[in-house]
Amino acid sequence: MDDEIALARAITDEQLVLHYQPIIALDTGRPVGAEALVRWHRPGHGMQAPDRFIPMAEESGLIVDLGRWVLHQACRDAAGWPHQAPIMADASVSVNVSARQLTHPRFLADLQTALAETGLAPERLILEITETALISEPEAAMETLHAVRACGVQLALDDFGTGYSSLSYVQKLPATILKIDKSFVDPISGPGAGTALSEVVVKLAEAIGMRTVAEGVESPEQATALRLLGCHRGQGYTWSRPVPNAELREVAMRLA
Ligand code: G
Ligand code: G
Ligand code: MN
Ligand code: NA
Q: Which residue intervals define the domain EAL in the entry (predicted)?
């Protein structure tokens, strides 16, 4: 309970901060976007990673307010990228959205407010959703996802392969991007080595017309192997850790 009160306060008292992890086009090796990942500068506790407080936020319902803050801040930061570095002019920003946030009655209004107030082009925003998140209220979620697409915002299916949803359900989702979970990338040691599962996922995505982003890419060998499989984009420590918005320009210039 004390933790909940502290988190509620963190949202209003500007203790939350977004870090950004660049997403790289595997064919050119250049950054084309970044994923927003929230951190909590909790007084007396140092910097808290999201797995320390997102589950609590989901259980308590605070995720609705927290998610609204994240969405707004991410749109505001991304609206400023074209002025930070020319290479970031068209870069997209990916924002994680929890089920409870997505199915909240105010979600669409909040999304439209964030876009209108920050001036971010809807095409530059990608919402990341997980399979497990969609299972609790599949119909409500599906309706909202179609409305999100109608706004011009893109959708990515996060952590693909770790959930329980059927392929037919995945195919029905109006998502255009599939994020290949790190657990499929980990076994890759080079082209053709340990690539069996990631190859299946890339082929599956191709078959249903989705673009792919590999997560947790930690070596140049993995990046090469994924590019040769036809994976479009990658994200991981081999390029950059998540960094504060103010450092994104420097990272983007290094990768350009
Ligand atoms: O940043 P880190 O690598 O520790 O992220 C851990 C987990 O927290 C990831 O699964 C990510 O999806 C989740 N996460 C990070 N930021 C957000 C956020 O703003 N909202 C939600 N719902 N989840 C987030
Ligand atoms: O939203 P999602 O669950 O995909 O969040 C991505 C998580 O993976 C974040 O916690 C991020 O900090 C982490 N991450 C990103 N790149 C790497 C990587 O190359 N290696 C490892 N171990 N973790 C990573
Ligand atoms: Mn994600
Ligand atoms: Na993921």
A: 1-256
